[in-house]
Amino acid sequence: MAKSDKKAKKALKDAQKALERVLKNENAFKDAVRLSVRSFAHDIKNPLNALIGYSQLMCHGTIPPEKYLESAEVIDTAAKRMLALCNSMLEEDWDDKNGTQGPAEDEVQDFEVADMIGEVETLFQQTASDRDIDFSTRVSEDFPTLHTVPQHIYRALTNTLSNAMKFTAGGGNVSLKAEMDGSGDAVLFVIRDSGEGIPATQLKEILKPYKTTVSARGDEGTGLGLPIVNQLMLELGGRMEISSREHQGTKVTLRFPKTLQAAA
């Protein structure tokens, strides 16, 4: 009888451990989905703000009629970006929330970065103007055609620039430069700002989700922008480098191979 009791207790203990593992995995999955949904909402804000901003300018008659077509094109591009983000969210592999598989083969494309830089510049022009920030972009003449995930690049650039704009005061400057890294195999996107900078004590923390900060203007971050960019760079086989000094601005370098080998 005692032997039977021991077996029953062991079976019960094993069952409890199995249940705890199931609950732990379920909670981890829920946390991952919650983070993914919040990241999507964070990403969609940039094109949505452009869509709202330019449509309001047209509705209020702030821009001359000859600029309507140009503004309509900005709205159209922003709407298509939002649709692409929605499709990406719907097609996401919810069974691979750790991103172990990497980008799928059909996500990887050849594309010219100059077109995307132009789109991103237009996207942030109004924000820069409203905040009295000098915003400039440049693509080096030897910059190659990229074979990678365009949507990842777009998300990385818009999140990094949004962060730079948020923490740069009026009269400051933000710049974006695309260039080769010297080896010939990788490319660089360098985003500089003359903003508030990041205290040395916070540099190691800013890549953790939900580590929020508040700008001198009173804008509070979501704590998702730079962690999203960091994850995107890892998925592209690259990395994000941050150098900053408090009150002296920040430099963010996105470094990744010009040709990505996609997962089968």
In terms of topology, how is this protein built?
Blueprint: H1 2-59, H2 68-90, E1 109-111, H3 113-130, E2 134-139, E3 146-148, H4 150-166, E4 173-180, E5 186-193, H5 225-235, E6 239-244, E7 250-257
Parallel strand pairs: 2-4
Antiparallel strand pairs: 1-3, 4-5, 5-7, 6-7
Number of strands: 7
Name the beta content range: 15-25%
Secondary-structure element sequence? HHEHEEHEEHEE
The fold-level CATH name of the largest domain is: Heat Shock Protein 90
Tell me the number of structural domains.
2
Instruction: Supply the CATH superfamily name of the largest domain.
Output: Histidine kinase-like ATPase, C-terminal domain
Task: Give the rounded overall mean pLDDT.
Answer: 80
Alpha plus pi helix count: 5
The first-to-last residue Cα distance is: 57 Å
So what's the CATH class of the largest domain? Alpha Beta
Helix content: 40-55%
**Sheet having the most strands:** 5 strands, mixed
Low-confidence stretches: none
Description:
The chain has 264 residues and is of the alpha+beta class. It has two domains: 2-89, Helix Hairpins (Orthogonal Bundle); 110-257, Histidine kinase-like ATPase, C-terminal domain (Heat Shock Protein 90), CATH 3.30.565.10. Helices cover 48% and strands 16% of the residues. The strands form two sheets. The protein has a five-stranded mixed sheet with strand order 2-4-5-7-6, with helices on one face. Strands 1-3 form a two-stranded antiparallel sheet. It is globular.
